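Before the break, one more example. Copy the sequence into your notebook; we will annotate it together after we see the structure.
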Amino acid sequence: MPSPNPWPAGVTGIAYGGDYNPEQWSTQVQLEDIELMRQAKVNLLSVGIFSWSLLEPREGEYDFQWLDEVLDRLHAAGIRVALATATASPPAWLVRKHPEIRPVTVDGVPLEQGSRQSYAVSSPVFRAYALGLTRKVAERYRDHPALALWHVDNELGCHVPHDYSDSAATAFRQWLRERYGRVEALNAAWGTAFWSQRYDSFDEILPPRAAPTFVNPTQQLDFARFSSDALLVHYRALRDVLREVTPEIPTTTNFMMTSRTKWVDYFSWSDDMDVVANDHYTVASDPHPQIELAFSADLSRGVASGAPWMLMEHSTSAVNWQPRNRAKGEGEMLRNSLSHVARGADSVMFFQWRQSAAGAERFHSAMVPHAGPDSDVFRTTVELGRRVEALAPVRGSRVHADVALVFDYVSWWASESDGHPSQSLSYMEEALRWYGALWRRNITVDVVPPHADLEGYKVVLVPTLKLVSDDTADRIATAARGGASVLVTFFSGITDENEHVRLGGYPGAFRELLGVRSEEFWPLGEGERHLLDNGGTGEFWAEKTSLEGAEPVRTWAGGPLSGRPAVTRRPVGDGTAWYAGTRLDADSLDGVVGSLLQEAAVEPVLADLPEGVEAVRRVGADGARFVFLLNHTGDGTQVKIEGSELFGGGAIAEGVLALPPHEVRVVREPNI
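Here is what the structure looks like once it is written out:
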């Protein structure tokens, strides 16, 4: 049974803190930490994530004294703890005794101890040791007053999303038996008549290890599904021990819902979380990181089914794992943090509290940097703590959106596998192009799974949803018939759940809804662009499309498909169904988005906002309305809004709020 308390016990207001690794520091430094935490108004810390080798230095020998002292000290300071199972990095003695627990790459190379996550998630040997440690930790601290939340493992699947070991092969075969029942059903689903791939027994099947050329596409897809499920099975096993010992304490693990983490289907995990938690890091090379951040936050809210969620990790400044690790600019740390809160997070946490002096992440920023408390980073940490404390009234409120973007991890996997018309297709890039156009118009978006209930949304975007079930196709068509403006983009509806092409013409599952039929894909070359009838361009993708009930919105005015439709629209019931058969230039894409919003009567959060200012509204169960205003520019500006400002500004005079450069303000609007 889930915990009756879906939020860290004893944490009031918005949670604020981060990963705390006191085992890296002397007692003197730990005592200084407590004083600095008080200054910063820290109220929640993740503890013990990578401490297995200290808690169990030798098999069966445990040392909890240091952790007892840490938790006692934090409790005395009024700080609650998200206590980890400490299973994220097996100790050297375990790997040496049981080398079979090591994960194996697609090429058959075992990954050695000396980093982290050096375990095969399906290994029964590793599972037994991990469960043993989890039980020891749970029984030791079940009654500790600092315990607020269980932090299971860490970033599951981050480094080893796919394991090709013998343990994985055994577990994969069992997963296939449960999915298909009979090997004949698997042969039909995998299309094994092609290339003489037929199986006579499940025992003949292996993971899709390195092969002479393309591996069976459905085998690859099922292995990706299995791998996501295997990580979830591991989470459940550890969580169930924690629930048995401490049923009143909620459990979670930190997801990695960013544009760069594709191999875990987080929507399929959400029901197993007492509270959804996410780690997010911006990329220095991204010219508009605030858009990807907003998308990831909206995705986190979608996985949480709209409920408040936890930002478990992000960075105060530079990370250490990119080619060039840029420090954050003026106000960027504050804007990043509060953008997550604006979009539904009820916690702001970092990796980590104190920047490490040794180890692989010693150049990763932290709340207390190498420079110490006399630094801009720590002063910003203290200022952010003050603001987070002021946002206590926001906790528990929710975000409402009139626009849904359908997002599917399985379709992401399928659309980027090999043997496709274009190997350059990026599922996330296509999603972000359409999302970005909405962000620039200050339109709030719910990022939802393909099985979501779409009733009530005025606009539904379906970017590059290659793999589609009949049920999903029907849900999207029902939304259009019910009054929504639905837009589907190229390479959608192409295959069914087994990666079998839907015959009769593209876009397959959506052909009737959209009123178009494409008989052939026409991928464009690198840098190849062709004119559209509005003077814009299409690039990357084109299709040999005919109209079967739709009307052209944009037509090719040049290139090999001149005169054929590139963007179409079809009235459907009380709504419309649009199709974008190419990658539109930015202005043309924005024009299509504007037409969708106009016909669906979707309004921005606030009208007439200056360019570069982001606005997001949260609404409480009592009707309280909070608008977050984030200035991503270097120019001060003014925003027309009524209410009172929560960061000490008080009542807004004459309905005009001054918004300084790079700054954030939160306004409590008058209740309607």
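The radius of gyration is 26 Å. The first strand starts at residue 15 and ends at 20. Try to locate both features in your own notes.
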